[in-house]
Amino acid sequence: MRFGWGSRDLRRTSEPLAALADGLTQKQACIASGICENTLAAWRERYPDLEPRIEAAREAARQKALEGIKTAGDDGDWRASEAFLRMSFHTDYRQNQSINVNATATAQQATIITDEQRKRLIEMRHQLIRRELRAGTVKAIEAKLSDGVAKAEVVPEIAEAGLLLRGVPG
Questions:
Q1: How far is CA 102 from CA 99, 106, 161, 167, in A?
Q2: 9 partner at 20 to 30 Å CA-CA among 2, 61, 164, 166?
Q3: Which residues, at least 6 apart from 4, have a Cβ–Cβ distance to it below 8 Å?
Q4: pTM higher than 0.70, yes or no?
Q5: List of residues 6+ apart from 100 with CB closer than 8 A
Q6: 152: three-class secondary structure by DSSP
Q7: Residue pLDDT, tens place only, 109-160
């Protein structure tokens, strides 16, 4: 049977496949065969027809193990019979039939406001900012006036700030 592989690759796959059929894991099979796990991965990518052969080797190992358990059970070892039933009919003979689910949820508490309330809060904020700016401007103007700066020099600043200062000495 020709697989379109390089003859060297084809010969080298027989060892890991035999090791898999004996029940070794893929890592163990690679070590036993003297190849790197990356090599087996590359072969699997390069040769798609290798995948069913690997699955067949793993199934052969499973069948062999089940047969050994069944034989031990037939010879009177009830534990082997139990293991055979659990492995062959796992949905019916599951060890732990309870299903545990753990979930954790966290939430942030948020205050919801309407668009109208939001606009009102924004306007209130703007008013506070304007008030603070005016207070700062008034203090600066009062400081200039108290330093003897003529009212005529300060009037443009007052007009720009939109302020009306009553009772400021001229």
A1: 10, 14, 63, 74
A2: 61
A3: 47, 49
A4: no
A5: none
A6: helix
A7: 777 888 999 999 989 988 887 888 777 777 776 776 677 666 656 556 655 5
